[in-house]
Queue: 4 jobs
Job 1
Amino acid sequence: AFDMSVSQFEIARRGDAENTNLDFNASPAKEEYKRELASTLYGGNPQENKVLAFKSKAPKPPEGHQNSLRVLYSQNKDAMNQPKRFSRNIPQAPERILDAPDLIDDYYLNLLDWNSNNTVAISLGDSVYLWNATDGSITQLMQTPGDGSHVTSVSWIQDGTHLAVGTSRNVVQLWDTERQKRVREMDGHQARVGALAWNSHILTSGGRDGLLVHHDVRVQNHITASVEGHTQEVCGLKWSPHGNQLASGGNDNLLNIWDDRMTATPTFGLTSHCA
């Protein structure tokens, strides 16, 4: 319970105690009045009296009483223990749309690649175009000979200065994009080259013939290894970030993992794919 009379007296008494040094004219009658008032309010023992005191337990609720807030408390008691969820805004419309006429409708081919210098290489039929995403400029890099051939894959080297281009003529071309000049042309396949992957100066190509061919682009005799990786067309190639493993996927529904020793057999194969 809260005793208002005791509270008011305590406030006044504490104020008088703080001003004791300033009260030079306090009379004996006034001091006696304070002692009598304190004795009456505190019941004879002012040191043990409390302004707030619980003299008895709270009464029990009537039988059958339902607390209307119980559901609210029970539903939110674990709210503080749950991790905070953050929402991510996913754009529902593209930032920019580029026209891509003559883009070949063949999901076995790899016709698009974005380099570290913010330039996109895209194959449109028999030509390769470069789109600079920074300034929006477009440049035609190359075009295959007019013999019905077309580009089947593109892949940037790590520093973004050279582009590897696979064609339906079973060869891989290496282009210096800064000078817009072809550096060399490399063979090794008996069918179109649909997948390319770089590992430093080593370029790995995969073709419809099922072969994986490793090219060292620095030397004249560029083929360092050639293995039969799949029984059907190689559709995808990717070197690991550390460059010690290569993943290859083929139309034979196999995913193979190869080490950088370029052995004739993969170190691991995943055969559970159905397509």
Job 2
Amino acid sequence: QLGRENCALVGGHTSEGAELAMGLSVTGAVHPDKVLRKGPLRVGHVLVLTKPLGTGTVMAADMRYSAKGNWLAACLRSMLQSNASAARVLSSVCSAGDGNKEGMLCSGCTDVTGFGLLGHLLEMIQCSEDDTSRLEADSKSGLSSKCSVELILNDIPLLPGAAECVKNGILSSLQPQNIRCARAIGNATAGNGHATYPLLFDPQTSGGLLAAVAPSVADECIAALKAAGYLSASVIGRVV
């Protein structure tokens, strides 16, 4: 997998423990004009998610011998899919015309990993106007206050089996820690009965990218991501 991205594995050390574990530290370089930062988010931009959610709960189910084979296969395929091509798509689409001057085309981008979708989205909000921003989550749409983000739960892509695992009470051991972010949701009662709601807190292993892009390039961005192999890429909300 590293070779596919022209990445060299160098150095390392050995440690002992009760369980098999492996960790990597990544060092790289990027041109200053091509950096996609977490924020500040621009009001009116839409949120694009490149990969489906659910690696945490599906892997938890596998540890309990409760995951179906096709669930696990889809989960592993998603985790093995590099974000490199998605990053190149976002960089390319958002560099069109006059480029991404002052975040006009892409005002924020991050990867979705251990803090879950909500945790990483909150980091993007905190990079924006102020730390009192509120997050609105609704199964369809909803009103939101200034400096907020609105999620459309029906449009958030999920891995096969993820919703069923959550319904059966199978959650990652990190889920309780991530649920603390729920206090930032302004209308939790409108969304907490939705099947996708618990997966906002699901910790991801090798999750996708989350980007805030201008509506004018959203369709082009989704089409390019799907052409690059990110078949679940979707617009999941907006900055309002």
Job 3
Amino acid sequence: TTFGKLKNNVSKEQRLKKRKREEDDLELYASVARRKGTSNRKERGSIRDRRPHVIMADRLESIRSAIESRPSSGPFHKPVNRRTWPQYYEKISNPIDLSTIRDKIQKYEYRTADAFLKDFELMKSNAIKFNGAGALISEEASAIYQVVKDKVEESRAELTHLEEAVQEQMSGKPKKRSNKKGSKGGSTPGSGFTGSGSDIMDIDFNFDGISDSDSD
């Protein structure tokens, strides 16, 4: 009958609508899962870049790479050659150099700006100890240390904020407002050894929000 056909058509239409809703719901769920999941590399990478330990590493690397561009910084770029200068390692027990500092930055070993600065102080003291205070390379090492120290002090407020965020990220505790400065950290092996002084480019430390490590 006409009524029976109409009823069948209505129920068929309802089934099609229901199936469409289910498919739409499934697609919506899948898109949310893709956003939240770990398979979306691009999104995962952008979230990682906003984490405080990554931002901190970027800030420290901007200082280190600027130091590396100094005309007279060549002797500090890589570790002192052990074969050529075996006596260096007899006298210097804790060598450090710019490539070692770069590796530590990449591994997020600097949890504080002071730990980073301490490695440049070590580089200066190694150069003076091996070459003497009046040597050109020792003067360059001292100039490098002063530039890094000045840049860290200029940006102390922002860097302290990052240090606190890194500490918070590692501890997993809720954030507490604090005016404390970041604690001092240790250092690692590094270099200093045969150049002259020159100035460094200005580094802009304007950075906005922090959202999502490791130590000396």
Job 4
Amino acid sequence: ATACLLLNAQFCISGRWSRPACDLELLVFAGNMATWEQQQASAAGTLLGVYSTPVTKDDVRRIIELGESLQERKDIYTYCADLYSWRYYGLTIPCILLTMTVSIMSAVWPDCEHEVVRKALISGSSALATMIVAALSLFKFQSKMDVFSRSANQIEGLISRCRFASKFDVDGHIKRDGAQQLITEVKRQMLEIRAHTPQVSMDMEAKGRTRHLQLLRQQDSASATCADAAEEGRSQVAKASGSTVPVSNDTGATIVPTDPAYNSMARAA
């Protein structure tokens, strides 16, 4: 555009074009430039309005609820992984022991002594080991254990993203479009995880939800214990400094000790 403007100006100066034609070209060019600048300013204003919109409380609530639902699904998958691991190892270890028993009995059993008993024990142990191997291959406990464990780890990553984003949304560091994009991305990845995970039976899902509730109660109990310990520590600091713990009088006003030693020790605690 600048080259065109300079070329038109050169033509006007040299007299190769008529002056009215040059003036008309310059007016058309100036009008086009003004229209382009208005379009760019309008587009920049629109983008600025979209990307500078602060996050709302509803977006934060949606992120927190999404993290809670992901935590529940993660606990269910963890329960399924633990259950299949117990079944897998509960069949694999006896199979190894039976195979070793067959090998040892075949090597150390005396010849021509209780031949029928020896054959019965070796045949029975071999048949039982074969049945266990067939059961492991049929029910695929190892593959299910690995899939549920991997899915639980992937969901843990999504939970971390939601917690991190919710904290920064509260502080105002992430805008609304970022929060909505995060929710969409997490939901998409969760659908992919569930698509590649075996179906969970109703009984296993119910037991997984029960474990989730137990873990929540344990977390609440641990939080209450930590709060009580912190309160007890502050009381001990106050007693050691010869001051009293902040209390409320009859009028509802809070009495706070002004001893510098108490304040410094309380901050340290």
